[in-house]
Fold this protein.
Amino acid sequence: MKMTPRRKRSDSAAAAVAAAQAVALGPIDPPAHVTLRPGDRPFWDAIVTARARDTWTQTDLATAANLARAQADIETLQAQLDAAGYLIEGKANPLAAMVETLSRRAVALSRVLHVHAQATVGRSEDAAKALDNERKAAADHDPLIPTLRVVGG
């Protein structure tokens, strides 16, 4: 039988304190046995902040490093592909296949780590309902009630 400590309720005061402390600590650093290149770090930070700090295991962090490296490589290869073009002498540029392979890897790793959109934001139909509610609220806006406006934008 698996024995794991019980998680705090997300709406408790203790959970709010833990969340504030986690934010103050910043993104988790990679484990000592994992090497990240300088270009991987922005992706690493985005990945490890997509989940609560206390949910990451050492294995998850190693997988997160693979995802960060894949995302950094996608950006590098995509820039090279944009410069060279998708076609070279009438044939598909081999970089396009590499970008596609790395993109598939990134999607799979995101699912494994539960840092994909459905895990972090929710189901798309729920997001669509929220957007519809926002649009209805904007349409039902009372012009006598002041709202925030962006000036010059």
